Here is the input.
Amino acid sequence: MSSAAHFDLTGRTAIVTGANTGIGQGIAVALAAAGAGIVAVGRSAMDETQALANAHGRPFLAVKADLGTTEPIGRIVAAAQEIGARPDILVNNAGIIRRSDAIDFSEEDWDAVLDVNLKAAFFLSQAAARLMLADGVGGKIINIASLLSFQGGIRVASYTASKSGLAGLTRLLACEWAGRGINVNAIAPGYFVSNNTQALREDSLRSADILGRIPAGRWGEPSDLGGAAVFLASRASDYVNGITLPVDGGWLAR
Here is the structure.
């Protein structure tokens, strides 16, 4: 097999959550460019994502869903089957963030973030894995972690807990499923241009502090995650299990 063929996703179908904007959109488009059909999940319209994916000639299906509960999980997985595809790749990207000093952090904000960022990711992985295991073909699961899977952060208690938990869950699922043909790994984006970082980017002092620590000297763009996502979704990563891969412009190296 040629090196290019190792990264070819032609004929495969990827479910990408939070695909309406930002990081999820960037990953969905990168997977489409590598040949995958896309089942895009989001809370709002995905017309832009669809147009970008369709430019690569790949099948695209939008599923409107709020992963604040587990209700949509069955119909997300069923959507792929309804278009005659099995879920070969799952990208758990949907996530929210709430900011408050730990001393004032509310139970509501704790539960809301854990429900989307961790609970939904686990049960969607479970649902997809059942289909991946049923026919013996296996598949790829990619969780979108965070620098706060490694670090503590400030004023984001539930987000840090959820992303630390997601890194641990990635390792747990890899231990259980690697021998059964499912590769479970994670990507930890650094500071990227996204809805979740808007407040930081608009705070001139915080933005300057962040940029001052990034060796690459800039905020990440969603397209910067494409290569890592295609690698972890492809045959090139068949012997990669349970890692959390930082894509952070060198943040953790400093």
